[in-house]
Specification:
- The chain is of the alpha+beta class and 294 residues long.
- It is 25% helix and 8% strand.
- It has five helices and six strands; from the N terminus they run E-E-E-H-H-H-H-E-E-E-H.
- It has helices at 67-70, 81-114, 150-160, 167-185, 275-280; strands spanning 3-6, 18-22, 33-37, 232-235, 238-241, 272-273.
- Strands 1-2-3 form a three-stranded antiparallel beta sheet, with no helix packed on it. Strands 4-5-6 form a three-stranded mixed beta sheet.
- Helix 2 (81-114) crosses helix 3 (150-160).
- The radius of gyration is 42 Å and the shape is flat.
Amino acid sequence: VAALTSEPPNASVNTYSGMMTFPPVSDEDGPSIDVPLNAENILLRGAMLRNTEWAIGLACFTGTDTKLVQNSFETPSKFSRLDHLINRTVLLILTVMLLCVLISAALSVYAYRDMFDTLWYVGYSTNATDPWPYLQGLPTPQWDAEPPVFGQQIFLFITLLNNFVPLSLYVTVEMITLFMMYLINRDREMYHEETDTRAVARSTIVTDLGQVQYIFSDKTGTLTCNIMRFKRCSVDGMAFGAPIEKANPNQEQPSETAEYETPAGDIPPSTFHPLKRLLVGAVGTPETDPGLEK
């Protein structure tokens, strides 16, 4: 019988180590055939055959042991900071309410047992044949001979103290969030006239806008509109493009035909070649004065 020896489940999709053991082909007492397996011998979940019509496979991982599930992660929550604060506040209120219920239930049970003989006006008495005190002419009532237990008092005080939980707080916060989204959608300062586009609040976490302290963005794209201007380049030791003075980085790049003044310690402008010469493929070499040669 063939057997598969596989590595334990892991999240690495580019590696695999295993061994396939086949029974002897001709002689039953002969040695088994071991075939090593690597990443080229495994098909991940969801893979499709392209260059072959069929393939014989054996499932080595199933369920949560597959590499795809091992690489999956939980979706981050879309709750705002205000939602997290409200949830923590409600949990604190529930904790305080539970403590009040337990303490009240314990005190109630103690009071019932301590003053049980004096609670005839609510129907409690140890003797079921006693008549009504001060009302001898009335028939004997059906007395309760046992005081309420601790569990009954817990449910009683939960019902009495259920107003501790601010259920209307969630409704109020949702209404405020919808109103803030409406203000964003109708804000004239967020309207772009060129494209006739207004701001659209697609998320309900607009309450976090007033709590932003840092903004991280990439170098190009979002803030620069993907505008990339050519400055200069070097080909075979020759510089092409217009020189730029580093003393004033806010100054616009001058044209190729403009005259430049060479700052102290900077590269002279004569060493830069116009960009069009690079496109043509011809660069003139400046002639050397014979009188300067020795």
